[in-house]
């Protein structure tokens, strides 16, 4: 199950309305750890401007794309950048 936050102006608008960077990061981390189909133990979530940045490693093919999809479910499409590698 992935939690979705209702935003009307994308991630940037949500931050301007009191949705803090720390809570955004925590929400993405929580959604990744709750996902049964992605091992997020080596994924680091950070915020850079308006973007959520996913860094680290995954072990299976397709997990990079799935992790980005999960993060976009939280912050909105287009607001996630991936710097993850597959080992």
State the secondary-structure class: alpha+beta
Tell me the span between the first and last alpha carbons: 26 Å
Number of DSSP helical runs = 3
- Amount of helix: 25-40%
User: Which residues form runs of ≥5 with pLDDT under 50?
Assistant: 5-9
Estimate what percentage of residues fall within beta strands: 15-25%
Short description:
This protein has 87 residues and is α+β, with helices and mostly antiparallel strands. The chain is 39% helix and 24% strand.
Describe this entry's structure for a reader:
The chain has a single domain, classed as Histidine-containing Protein, Chain: A (2-Layer Sandwich), CATH 3.30.1340. About 6% of the residues have low confidence. It is α+β, with helices and mostly antiparallel strands and 87 residues long. The chain is built from 3 helices and 3 strands, in the order H-H-E-E-H-E. It has a 3-stranded mixed β-sheet with strand order 1-2-3, covered by helices on one side. A hairpin with a 2-residue loop joins strand 1 and strand 2. The longest helix is centred in the first third of the chain and has 14 residues.
Features:
single chain, 3 strands, alpha+beta, Histidine-containing Protein, Chain: A, globular, 3 helices, 87 residues
């Amino acid at each position: 199950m992935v939690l979705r936050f209702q935003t009307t102006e994308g991630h940037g608008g949500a931050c301007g309305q009191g949705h803090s960077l720390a809570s955004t990061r925590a929400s993405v981390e929580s959604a990744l750890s709750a996902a049964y189909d992605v091992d997020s133990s080596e994924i680091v979530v950070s915020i850079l401007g308006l973007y959520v940045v996913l860094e680290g490693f995954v072990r299976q093919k397709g997990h990079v794309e799935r992790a980005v999809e999960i993060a976009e479910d939280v912050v909105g499409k287009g607001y996630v950048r991936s710097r993850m590698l597959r080992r």
